[in-house]
Design a protein that fits this description.
The structure holds two protein chains of two kinds. Chain A contains ten helices and no strands. Chain A is mostly helical. The radius of gyration of chain A is 17 Å and the shape is globular. Chain B is mainly alpha-helical. Chain B is rod-shaped, with a radius of gyration of 42 Å. Chain B has two domains: 65 residues; 46 residues, no CATH class. Classes of the chains: A mainly alpha, B mainly alpha. Chains A and B meet through helix 2, helix 3, helix 7, helix 8 and helix 10 of A and helix 1 of B.
Protein backbone atom coordinates (compact mmCIF):
# COMPACT_ATOMS: atom_id res chain seq x y z
CA UNK A 1 0.00 0.00 0.00
CA UNK A 2 1.43 3.40 -0.90
CA UNK A 3 2.59 5.70 1.88
CA UNK A 4 -0.13 8.13 2.85
CA UNK A 5 0.63 11.39 4.57
CA UNK A 6 -0.59 12.10 8.08
CA UNK A 7 -3.02 14.79 6.96
CA UNK A 8 -4.94 12.34 4.80
CA UNK A 9 -4.94 9.65 7.49
CA UNK A 10 -6.22 12.16 10.04
CA UNK A 11 -8.96 13.23 7.65
CA UNK A 12 -10.02 9.62 7.16
CA UNK A 13 -9.85 8.85 10.88
CA UNK A 14 -12.12 11.85 11.51
CA UNK A 15 -14.69 10.07 9.34
CA UNK A 16 -14.34 6.89 11.40
CA UNK A 17 -11.94 4.99 9.13
CA UNK A 18 -10.46 2.31 11.42
CA UNK A 19 -7.70 1.38 8.98
CA UNK A 20 -6.48 4.99 8.82
CA UNK A 21 -6.44 5.20 12.61
CA UNK A 22 -4.52 1.91 12.84
CA UNK A 23 -1.91 3.30 10.46
CA UNK A 24 -1.56 6.45 12.54
CA UNK A 25 -1.08 4.29 15.63
CA UNK A 26 1.56 2.11 13.98
CA UNK A 27 3.37 5.14 12.58
CA UNK A 28 3.57 7.15 15.80
CA UNK A 29 3.26 4.70 18.67
CA UNK A 30 6.98 4.13 19.11
CA UNK A 31 7.77 7.84 19.45
CA UNK A 32 4.81 8.21 21.80
CA UNK A 33 6.02 5.28 23.87
CA UNK A 34 9.56 6.67 24.14
CA UNK A 35 8.32 10.09 25.22
CA UNK A 36 6.08 8.50 27.83
CA UNK A 37 8.87 6.22 29.00
CA UNK A 38 11.21 9.19 29.31
CA UNK A 39 8.76 10.86 31.66
CA UNK A 40 7.45 7.98 33.77
CA UNK A 41 10.26 5.43 33.50
CA UNK A 42 8.00 2.37 33.67
CA UNK A 43 7.21 0.42 30.46
CA UNK A 44 3.79 -0.67 31.72
CA UNK A 45 2.89 2.91 32.61
CA UNK A 46 4.18 4.08 29.23
CA UNK A 47 1.83 1.53 27.60
CA UNK A 48 -1.16 2.89 29.53
CA UNK A 49 -0.27 6.48 28.76
CA UNK A 50 0.05 5.71 25.05
CA UNK A 51 -3.36 4.03 25.02
CA UNK A 52 -5.00 6.96 26.78
CA UNK A 53 -3.20 9.50 24.60
CA UNK A 54 -4.27 7.87 21.33
CA UNK A 55 -7.89 7.64 22.48
CA UNK A 56 -7.82 11.27 23.62
CA UNK A 57 -6.29 12.27 20.29
CA UNK A 58 -9.02 10.41 18.41
CA UNK A 59 -11.76 12.04 20.46
CA UNK A 60 -10.24 15.47 19.85
CA UNK A 61 -9.16 15.08 16.24
CA UNK A 62 -11.09 18.22 15.30
CA UNK A 63 -8.71 20.17 17.55
CA UNK A 64 -5.73 19.10 15.46
CA UNK A 65 -5.42 22.29 13.40
CA UNK A 66 -2.44 21.10 11.37
CA UNK A 67 -3.07 17.44 10.52
CA UNK A 68 0.19 17.34 8.60
CA UNK A 69 1.87 17.87 11.99
CA UNK A 70 -0.17 15.22 13.76
CA UNK A 71 2.93 13.72 15.36
CA UNK A 72 3.89 16.88 17.26
CA UNK A 73 0.27 17.38 18.38
CA UNK A 74 -0.02 13.76 19.55
CA UNK A 75 3.26 13.84 21.45
CA UNK A 76 2.15 16.93 23.33
CA UNK A 77 -0.87 14.97 24.49
CA UNK A 78 1.44 12.11 25.48
CA UNK A 79 3.71 14.43 27.47
CA UNK A 80 0.79 16.06 29.25
CA UNK A 81 -0.73 12.71 30.16
CA UNK A 82 2.64 11.37 31.27
CA UNK A 83 3.19 14.36 33.55
CA UNK A 84 -0.30 13.98 35.01
CA UNK A 85 0.35 10.28 35.53
CA UNK A 86 3.63 10.97 37.28
CA UNK A 87 2.02 13.48 39.62
CA UNK A 88 -0.84 11.10 40.34
CA UNK A 89 1.48 8.16 40.90
CA UNK A 90 3.85 10.14 43.07
CA UNK A 91 3.90 7.54 45.76
CA UNK A 92 4.84 4.78 43.38
CA UNK A 93 7.66 6.93 42.05
CA UNK A 94 9.29 6.62 45.43
CA UNK A 95 10.17 3.02 44.60
CA UNK A 96 13.75 2.92 43.29
CA UNK A 97 13.68 2.50 39.53
CA UNK A 98 16.34 -0.19 39.56
CA UNK A 99 14.20 -2.31 41.85
CA UNK A 100 11.06 -1.73 39.83
CA UNK A 101 12.85 -2.50 36.59
CA UNK A 102 14.27 -5.68 38.03
CA UNK A 103 10.76 -6.90 38.82
CA UNK A 104 9.41 -5.86 35.45
CA UNK A 105 12.28 -7.45 33.58
CA UNK A 106 11.97 -10.69 35.49
CA UNK A 107 8.25 -10.92 34.83
CA UNK A 108 8.49 -10.13 31.15
CA UNK A 109 11.53 -12.13 30.18
CA UNK A 110 12.65 -14.66 32.79
CA UNK A 111 15.03 -16.89 30.83
CA UNK A 112 15.32 -15.79 27.21
CA UNK A 113 18.09 -13.55 25.98
CA UNK A 114 19.56 -12.84 29.38
CA UNK A 115 22.35 -10.60 28.17
CA UNK A 116 19.97 -8.32 26.26
CA UNK A 117 17.68 -8.19 29.23
CA UNK A 118 20.59 -7.23 31.43
CA UNK A 119 21.65 -4.52 29.01
CA UNK A 120 18.11 -3.21 28.92
CA UNK A 121 18.06 -2.93 32.67
CA UNK A 122 21.38 -1.17 32.70
CA UNK A 123 20.17 1.25 30.07
CA UNK A 124 17.05 1.99 32.06
CA UNK A 125 19.11 2.56 35.15
CA UNK A 126 21.40 4.84 33.16
CA UNK A 127 18.46 6.80 31.80
CA UNK A 128 17.25 7.35 35.32
CA UNK A 129 20.39 9.36 36.05
CA UNK A 130 19.43 11.86 33.34
CA UNK A 131 16.96 14.70 33.56
CA UNK A 132 13.57 14.18 31.96
CA UNK A 133 14.43 16.50 29.07
CA UNK A 134 17.73 14.70 28.50
CA UNK A 135 15.92 11.35 28.40
CA UNK A 136 13.41 12.62 25.87
CA UNK A 137 16.10 14.17 23.69
CA UNK A 138 18.30 11.09 23.86
CA UNK A 139 15.55 8.56 23.12
CA UNK A 140 13.97 10.58 20.34
CA UNK A 141 17.31 11.31 18.69
CA UNK A 142 19.30 8.12 19.14
CA UNK A 143 16.48 5.58 19.08
CA UNK A 144 13.66 7.21 17.12
CA UNK A 145 15.96 9.09 14.73
CA UNK A 146 14.40 12.53 15.12
CA UNK A 147 16.39 15.61 14.13
CA UNK A 148 17.42 18.30 16.59
CA UNK A 149 14.95 20.76 15.07
CA UNK A 150 12.04 18.31 15.37
CA UNK A 151 12.86 17.62 19.01
CA UNK A 152 13.17 21.35 19.65
CA UNK A 153 9.72 21.92 18.16
CA UNK A 154 8.23 19.26 20.40
CA UNK A 155 9.92 20.41 23.58
CA UNK A 156 9.80 24.14 22.81
CA UNK A 157 13.56 24.36 22.96
CA UNK A 158 16.09 26.04 20.67
CA UNK A 159 18.05 23.64 18.47
CA UNK A 160 21.29 24.53 20.25
CA UNK A 161 19.76 23.63 23.60
CA UNK A 162 18.65 20.29 22.21
CA UNK A 163 22.21 19.61 21.02
CA UNK A 164 23.52 20.52 24.45
CA UNK A 165 21.06 18.20 26.20
CA UNK A 166 21.96 15.41 23.81
CA UNK A 167 25.67 15.90 24.42
CA UNK A 168 25.23 15.87 28.19
CA UNK A 169 22.94 12.84 28.08
CA UNK A 170 25.36 10.80 25.97
CA UNK A 171 28.27 11.72 28.15
CA UNK A 172 26.50 10.68 31.34
CA UNK A 173 25.30 7.44 29.79
CA UNK A 174 28.81 6.60 28.60
CA UNK A 175 30.25 7.39 31.99
CA UNK A 176 27.77 5.06 33.61
CA UNK A 177 27.60 2.25 31.06
CA UNK A 178 30.88 2.43 29.17
CA UNK A 179 31.60 0.68 25.92
CA UNK A 180 28.37 -1.30 25.84
CA UNK A 181 26.64 1.73 24.39
CA UNK A 182 28.91 2.39 21.46
CA UNK A 183 27.10 1.65 18.24
CA UNK A 184 28.83 -0.90 16.06
CA UNK A 185 29.80 0.83 12.85
CA UNK B 1 26.23 8.10 10.23
CA UNK B 2 26.34 9.88 13.59
CA UNK B 3 29.39 8.32 15.32
CA UNK B 4 28.32 9.70 18.68
CA UNK B 5 24.97 7.95 18.55
CA UNK B 6 24.39 5.49 21.40
CA UNK B 7 23.09 2.02 20.72
CA UNK B 8 19.81 2.06 22.63
CA UNK B 9 18.21 -0.66 20.56
CA UNK B 10 17.77 -2.84 23.65
CA UNK B 11 15.14 -0.32 24.72
CA UNK B 12 13.31 -0.49 21.38
CA UNK B 13 9.77 -1.59 22.34
CA UNK B 14 9.05 -2.96 18.88
CA UNK B 15 11.61 -5.73 19.34
CA UNK B 16 9.09 -7.69 21.33
CA UNK B 17 6.70 -8.01 18.42
CA UNK B 18 3.99 -9.91 20.28
CA UNK B 19 3.85 -7.38 23.12
CA UNK B 20 3.88 -4.51 20.64
CA UNK B 21 1.03 -5.95 18.60
CA UNK B 22 -0.97 -6.52 21.78
CA UNK B 23 -0.52 -2.85 22.65
CA UNK B 24 -1.66 -1.77 19.18
CA UNK B 25 -4.60 -4.16 19.45
CA UNK B 26 -5.65 -2.69 22.80
CA UNK B 27 -5.52 0.85 21.42
CA UNK B 28 -7.55 -0.11 18.36
CA UNK B 29 -10.08 -1.98 20.50
CA UNK B 30 -10.57 1.03 22.75
CA UNK B 31 -10.85 3.28 19.70
CA UNK B 32 -13.51 1.17 18.01
CA UNK B 33 -16.48 2.81 19.76
CA UNK B 34 -15.37 6.32 18.89
CA UNK B 35 -14.57 5.28 15.32
CA UNK B 36 -18.03 3.69 14.98
CA UNK B 37 -19.66 6.85 16.33
CA UNK B 38 -17.73 8.93 13.81
CA UNK B 39 -18.62 6.60 10.95
CA UNK B 40 -22.32 6.73 11.90
CA UNK B 41 -22.23 10.53 12.10
CA UNK B 42 -20.52 10.60 8.73
CA UNK B 43 -23.27 8.31 7.36
CA UNK B 44 -26.00 10.65 8.60
CA UNK B 45 -24.17 13.61 7.11
CA UNK B 46 -23.84 11.77 3.81
CA UNK B 47 -27.59 11.03 3.87
CA UNK B 48 -28.38 14.71 4.37
CA UNK B 49 -25.96 15.59 1.59
CA UNK B 50 -27.62 13.00 -0.64
CA UNK B 51 -31.06 14.58 -0.14
CA UNK B 52 -29.85 18.15 -0.13
CA UNK B 53 -29.08 18.25 -3.85
CA UNK B 54 -32.50 17.15 -5.17
CA UNK B 55 -34.24 19.27 -2.53
CA UNK B 56 -32.29 22.31 -3.62
CA UNK B 57 -33.05 21.57 -7.28
CA UNK B 58 -36.78 21.29 -6.53
CA UNK B 59 -36.72 24.56 -4.57
CA UNK B 60 -34.93 26.31 -7.42
CA UNK B 61 -37.48 25.00 -9.94
CA UNK B 62 -40.38 26.19 -7.74
CA UNK B 63 -38.77 29.60 -7.37
CA UNK B 64 -38.35 29.89 -11.15
CA UNK B 65 -41.98 28.91 -11.80
CA UNK B 66 -43.25 31.36 -9.16
CA UNK B 67 -41.16 34.19 -10.54
CA UNK B 68 -42.42 33.51 -14.08
CA UNK B 69 -46.04 33.47 -12.93
CA UNK B 70 -45.63 36.73 -11.02
CA UNK B 71 -44.04 38.44 -14.02
CA UNK B 72 -46.84 37.23 -16.30
CA UNK B 73 -49.51 38.50 -13.89
CA UNK B 74 -47.76 41.83 -13.64
CA UNK B 75 -47.91 42.22 -17.42
CA UNK B 76 -51.57 41.22 -17.86
CA UNK B 77 -53.03 42.96 -14.83
CA UNK B 78 -55.09 46.14 -15.48
CA UNK B 79 -53.78 49.43 -14.04
CA UNK B 80 -54.99 50.01 -10.49
CA UNK B 81 -56.49 53.41 -11.37
CA UNK B 82 -58.62 51.88 -14.13
CA UNK B 83 -59.93 49.25 -11.74
CA UNK B 84 -60.79 51.88 -9.12
CA UNK B 85 -62.60 53.99 -11.72
CA UNK B 86 -64.68 50.98 -12.82
CA UNK B 87 -65.64 50.20 -9.25
CA UNK B 88 -66.69 53.82 -8.60
CA UNK B 89 -68.89 53.77 -11.67
CA UNK B 90 -70.42 50.41 -10.79
CA UNK B 91 -71.34 51.59 -7.29
CA UNK B 92 -72.69 54.90 -8.57
CA UNK B 93 -70.62 56.87 -6.12
CA UNK B 94 -71.47 60.60 -6.15
CA UNK B 95 -69.17 62.57 -8.39
CA UNK B 96 -67.42 64.63 -5.64
CA UNK B 97 -66.52 61.43 -3.87
CA UNK B 98 -65.50 59.83 -7.14
CA UNK B 99 -63.10 62.69 -7.69
CA UNK B 100 -61.06 62.13 -4.55
CA UNK B 101 -61.25 58.39 -4.98
CA UNK B 102 -59.86 58.84 -8.48
CA UNK B 103 -57.13 61.14 -7.16
CA UNK B 104 -56.33 58.62 -4.46
CA UNK B 105 -56.36 61.16 -1.63
CA UNK B 106 -58.07 61.58 1.73
CA UNK B 107 -61.20 63.78 1.64
CA UNK B 108 -60.82 67.30 3.00
CA UNK B 109 -63.46 69.05 5.11
CA UNK B 110 -64.63 70.88 1.98
CA UNK B 111 -65.03 67.56 0.19
CA UNK B 112 -67.20 66.24 2.99
CA UNK B 113 -69.39 69.41 3.10
CA UNK B 114 -69.71 69.21 -0.68
CA UNK B 115 -70.75 65.58 -0.62
CA UNK B 116 -73.25 66.13 2.19
CA UNK B 117 -74.73 69.10 0.35
CA UNK B 118 -75.02 67.05 -2.83
CA UNK B 119 -76.65 64.23 -0.88
CA UNK B 120 -79.13 66.68 0.72
CA UNK B 121 -79.94 68.25 -2.65
CA UNK B 122 -80.74 64.92 -4.17
CA UNK B 123 -83.25 64.24 -1.42
Amino acid sequence: MPETDDARLVERARCGDAEAFDRLVRRHLRAAYLVALAVVGEPADADDICQDAFITALERLEDCRHPDRFSAWLLRIVRNRAHSHRRYEGVRQAVPLEEANAHAGAAADPHRDASRSELRERLRAGLETLTEIQRQVLLLHDLEGWRHREIGDLLDLPEGTVRSHLFQARRRMRERLGYALCEEL
Amino acid sequence: MDRERLDLSALDPTRDTARWERLIGRINARASAELARRAAAQGAFAMVALWARPALAAAAALAAISAGTLIALERTAAPAAAIAHSVVEALEVPSPAAAWIDEDRAPTVDDLILILAADGGER
